[in-house]
Amino acid sequence: MKNSFKTILTSAVVLLSLNSCKKESLNVLPTNDVTESVVYATPAGYKQGLARLYANYALTSPSGSDNSDVGGLNSGFADFLRLFWTSQELTTDEAICNWGDTGIPELDNSTWSTDNQFLRGLYSRSISQITLVNEYLRQSTPEQLASRNITGADATNVVRYRAEARFLRAFQYWVLLDAFGNPPFLTENDLIGKVNPKQTTRTALFAYVESELKAIEGDLANPGSAESEYGRANKGADWALLARLYLNAQVYTGTAKYTEAITYSSKVIASSYSLKPNYRDLFLADNNINNTENILTINYDGVNGTNYGGTTFLINAMVYTAPDAAGMVSTAYGVPNGGWAGNRTRQNLPALFPDPNGTLDKRGIFAGTKAVIDAIDAPNDGLKVTKFKNITSTNTTPPSLNGTFSSLDFALFRLAEQYLIYGEAVARGGSGGSAAQALTYVNALRFRAYGNNSGNVSAAALTTDFYLDERGRELYWEGHRRTDLIRYGKFTGSTYLWPFKGGVKAGTSVPAYRNLYPIPNADLIANPNLVQNPGY
Q: How many angstroms separate the CA atoms of 188 and 132, rounded?
């Protein structure tokens, strides 16, 4: 199933060049080098158009890894996952980077400005992807299908494609909701190029994402069905995003929705997903095979559609081409010509585990000899996270262009997160679940982690604080930590510190306004309807 949709994704690279978004603005149409009547003349064209929307998650431009279609951003930084990961991990207790690229020290030290290029890049990338979806939806209305004589089963298929496109848009609006709070807002129903987009509110955007996910549920494929292709959004992805949305509802709107989080995480859990027996296999290059834990992935290909973000970044940025002090070398991780040596952990992350070598809790997959960060620019301060590998479970390396690029797919949603959403929502007082069932889910994760029941916990251990730590152990470096720390009131303030939080080696208080990132200055200048988030 992976190969079948990856073939379609590869063809979508060509289609990207036919309909590229040259400017990241919600009120600018994508630039069309070929008319829509040609691109969408056949049912196959609509599926390729959908594949293009997915491919945009894994590419930086339609013309190769050395180019960026996000204005003003180096192509190496322009991949969605790299930008999202940087915003969710590098600003927290889980990661730090010793590179001096403009903007990275700000993120390391919790001192980012309104011009930070990585935050602007994430904002622009999300808006770019929303813009592409809006145009796809304009071209796939019933009226457009009728005008192109697309009827019957072909038209029914396009209904599903539209639902998937709307899911991808809802996901990107969730990214903006979570990170920026009050972004500009447009859908396919708004006029293009006539007026500047209005700014939405966080509460209104929450309601929109919620309503979109509920509206499309019936048109998406059932998990595990023949129609549910690997790498495409189905009902399981829809439920998983709703569960995540509801878990954070109090942050987003001021009103808790833990009961709803239990409802939708339970829908995912009751469907066709199951835990992969070996935790470490989740992060190998053949993680698509016999993996019923991943709900939705970004698919990467080390030969076709390469870029310097994604899992290529996750792997290369923590190893050396030549052995470092810990003996780490990039060939051991499937990128023999890679090795950029930048990202490590802050000591708070390995401290969550009984030992940093994964002897007991095998989710602790680190390398290095010094966990403590004494200096940001000291490359051997901090441990390396080595759970991501461009190597298969049979110890082979997939084909890779120039020996640099990864074919490891990245899970945006997996079942383990839903177990933990269920448990935390129960612990926070949500209805419709039980502490006994939550304990079963937690101990399933811990049995897998330890290989036996020696790591199992009792019901008394399942406090809300336990779930923050357990999410750290299960989901670290997977793009959750900033959101989690904000939900627990620990991302800003002084109740929880980590090295160089607030720019001080021992960590110091950070003002609460930094729970939201700033609207980029460039967009404030371009769109007078926008108002900056408080504090910036």
A: 10
Distances (CA, A) of 10 to 49, 164, 246, 479: 12, 18, 35, 26
Which amino acid type is present at position 486?
A: I
Please state the three-class secondary structure of 119-183 as a single string.
HHHHHHHHHHHHHHHHHHHHCCCHHHHHHCCCCHHHHHHHHHHHHHHHHHHHHHHHHHHHHCCCC
Specify whether the CB–CB gap between 336 and 393 falls below 8 A: no
Helices then strands, each counted (H, E), the chain: 18, 10
CB-based contact 275:293 (threshold 8 Å)? yes
Burial per residue of 216-241, b for 16 or more beta-carbon CB atoms within 10 angstroms, e otherwise: bbebbbebeeeebebbbbbbbbbbbb
Percent over 70 (pLDDT), the chain? 92
Poorest-confidence range of 36-50, 236-250, 276-290? 36-50
Q: Which of 386, 531, 358, 373 is nearest to 449 (CA)?
A: 358
Q: What are 380-432's pLDDT values in tens digits?
A: 899 999 999 999 999 999 999 888 899 999 999 999 999 999 999 999 999 99
Q: Would the pTM count as exceeding 0.85?
A: yes
β-sheet bridge partners, residue 297? 411
Tell me whether strands 384-385 and 366-367 are parallel, antiparallel or unpaired: antiparallel
CA pseudo-torsion sign 41, 45, 47, 49: negative
β 366-367/31-32 pair status: unpaired
Q: Are strands 96-97 and 343-344 parallel, antiparallel or unpaired?
A: antiparallel
- Per-residue confidence (pLDDT) for residue 69, from 0 to 100: 76
